[in-house]
Amino acid sequence: MDYRETGERFKELLKLENEPVAIKWSVREPEDISREEGKSRFCEKLEKAMKGEVFYSTADEEDCMGGARYTGLRDVSEFPANMRSGAFLTAMGLYRDIPAVQRSWRNNINIEPGIFRAVIFAPLGMAEFEPDVVFLICNARQAMEILHANAYDSGSRGLGADSGPICSSMAALPYLTGKVTYGFGDAGSRRHMGLGDEDVMVSIPGGELPRIVSNLEEMKRRRSFRED
Fold it and tell me: How far apart, in whole angstroms, are the C-alpha atoms of residue 140 and residue 200?
């Protein structure tokens, strides 16, 4: 499967302005891809890939507790208790108190730590690997068409993300469930990625992308989606 060709058709069908990002978890550090220079947050890595960078990242390059925890690069027990409590999020004004943080975290999903050594990021059009998850920034109309394309031949429903960090809701969740996931991002990711007010997020399990693109092509010939 040539995901680069599929990605280009995907962009054309939806008229996407932003490059979709291919994400892949790896049990070893790849030899044919450059390691990220310096540290950044998971959401910033997505932005780098959207802008054309191809690289892999390990726990050493992850600058955010959530990014390391939810992608499975570090075990939560490795972090100090004052971070595991979530007190830093109350200081930032994201939650009123620590109980609220703890309750919220119970809904976040993470990849089991200790399995993967690296996470690879690339613009979908430049990915020379089969992505586990394809992440994109789009508008509400484009997100709606993706959700319809997902349901077109299967009746499948997408998952709506909540206030949790996108490293969980838009990466670990679609990876582990195999479900198309949509959401608005959390306050931190929207700020660090510089997103516009109208931008929404969609993540597609990599194996579902060819089916969704094929469905989009057929849908575009039907009355409800045809552009006259």
Answer: 6
> How far, in Å, CA of 56 to CA of 120, rounded?
4
Q: Please report which residue ranges of 107-180 form alpha helices under DSSP H.
A: 140-151, 166-167, 173-177
pLDDT(11) > 80: yes
* Structure tokens given for 114: 């200790």
**Residue 77: both structure tokens together:** 């027990």
Which pLDDT score is estimated for 95?
87
Cβ proximity of 22 and 131 under 8 Å: yes
**What whole-number distance in Å separates Cα of residue 228 and Cα of residue 225?**
9
User: pLDDT by residue (tens digit) across 105-123?
Assistant: 888 999 999 999 999 999 9
Name the nearest CA neighbour of 164 among 203, 112, 106.
106
Model's pTM, two decimal places? 0.94
The closest of 49, 12, 13, 3 to 209, measured between CA atoms, is: 3
Strands of 159-160's sheet, edge to edge?
55-57, 118-123, 21-26, 133-138, 200-205, 181-183, 159-160
Element holding 121 (H helix, E strand): strand 118-123
| β-pair type (118-123, 21-26) | antiparallel
